[in-house]
Amino acid sequence: MTDLNTIGEFGLIERIRQATPAPKHADTVRGIGDDAAVFNWGDDYGLLATDMLVEGIHFDLMYVPLKHLGYKAVAVNVSDIAAMNGLPLQLTVSIGLSSRFPVEAVDELYEGIRMACEAYNVDLVGGDTTASRSGLIISISVLGKVPKDLITYRNTAQPNDVVCVTGDLGAAYLGLQLLEREKQVYLADPNMQPNLSEERSYLIQRQLRPDARTDIVHELRDLGIRPTAMIDISDGLASELLHICRQSGTGAVIFDENIPVDDQTHLAADEFKISPITAALNGGEDYELLFTVRPQEFDKLSTNARITAIGYLTANPDQVVLATKAGQQTPIRAQGWESLAKS
Ligand code: ADP
Ligand code: MG
């Protein structure tokens, strides 16, 4: 038998994809391989994304409030719809619960889910409820739509496109490091008060209650810009950039000094003795958007403070590199993958 870790999550998905028959319905436009599946809905494309959060793998209820968890479970799904340049419409929520959860815990989880549905203008329309032996499991599926002429895949980027990211990166990872450290302090001495001061609040918020960038989808539409490719940053900039490059057959040059990192992220990275660039490349859970635009389109975006150009694409698929100011180039590799970690 083959250990799952020898092929990894992406290897496993690729194996499933290869064994999946071609779509039987003409209206199934795109199946496995992008942020969401795509369907023909007349003037629009329908979009369907699904994501699961598992206690002990994706969250630790010692420091994750259930209300935040509910919000995050919705946001990470909506983020995949935004990554197709679409907007969400309806969602279903399926939960697995072990007997240690009282009714009030489910109320709290759903309060967060309802807050996110309000924030993203989505209707909660169904789901499933089951018992679980391994704590809490939340699986959400979201339907969305995008006008046909605006859909944005991962595999349609071109050489010379400008590579852009929204917001800033690495904060959610450092938020997680802070929460984990406080947990260890608490476990050692439950009388200790957590040291999560105001100047850390942004990092904690980015970890516990991320937002999907539907605002950017609206903004791109207002500016009349359709990215050539887009993906959301759930696993870290490195991994997502490699998805776009592999699927589009391009290379990329990314300038490390251009990668947007918040001041709080810099400070915490210093404290944990990790490079903020490593946190941005491999940390994950930022739920920002990574997209590419034709160079002549970038002018329309260049004054936007929420969008940063970090590099450009090349015609050489073997060259996906990080460039320093001094001109040194190092290959960008995807790291950090724990989804199938042994339990
Ligand atoms: P994302 O990080 O954007 O959620 P994933 O890496 O989870 O994307 O998934 C990539 C693609 O693989 C998506 O099209 C997704 O629907 C598909 N996929 C993931 N897991 C499975 C599975 N177990 N069976 C079939 N398709 C899957
Ligand atoms: Mg995604």
Number of helices: 10
Total strand count, please? 13
Quickly name the level 1 CATH class of the largest domain. Answer: Alpha Beta
Distance, first to last CA: 18 Å
Low-confidence stretches: 337-343
Helix content: 25-40%
Strand content range: 15-25%
The CATH H-level homologous superfamily of the largest domain: PurM-like C-terminal domain
Indicate the CATH architecture of the largest domain.
Answer: Alpha-Beta Complex
How many domains, in number, for the residues? Answer: 2
Class derived from helix and strand content: alpha+beta
Strand order of the largest sheet: 8-10-7-11-9-12-13
Pathway: Cofactor biosynthesis; thiamine diphosphate biosynthesis; thiamine diphosphate from thiamine phosphate: step 1/1
Organism: Spirosoma aureum
Pfam family, one: AIRS
GO molecular function: ATP binding; magnesium ion binding; thiamine-phosphate kinase activity
Task: Describe the structure in your own words.
It catalyses: thiamine phosphate + ATP = thiamine diphosphate + ADP. Pathway: Cofactor biosynthesis; thiamine diphosphate biosynthesis; thiamine diphosphate from thiamine phosphate: step 1/1. Substrate binds at residues 58, 285, 337. By secondary structure, the protein is of the alpha+beta class. It has two domains: 4-150, 60s Ribosomal Protein L30, Chain: A; 162-331, Phosphoribosyl-aminoimidazole Synthetase, Chain A, domain 2 (Alpha-Beta Complex). Helices cover 35% and strands 24% of the residues. The protein contains ten helices and 13 strands. The strands form two sheets. The chain has a seven-stranded mixed β-sheet with strand order 8-10-7-11-9-12-13, with helices on both faces. β12 and β13 form a beta hairpin. α2 packs parallel to α3. The longest helix is centred in the first third of the chain and has 18 residues, at 103-120. The protein is globular and about 55 Å long. The model is unreliable at 337-343 (pLDDT under 50). The structure holds adenosine-5'-diphosphate and magnesium ion. Adenosine-5'-diphosphate (ADP) binds at residues 13, 16, 32-35, 51, 80, 234.
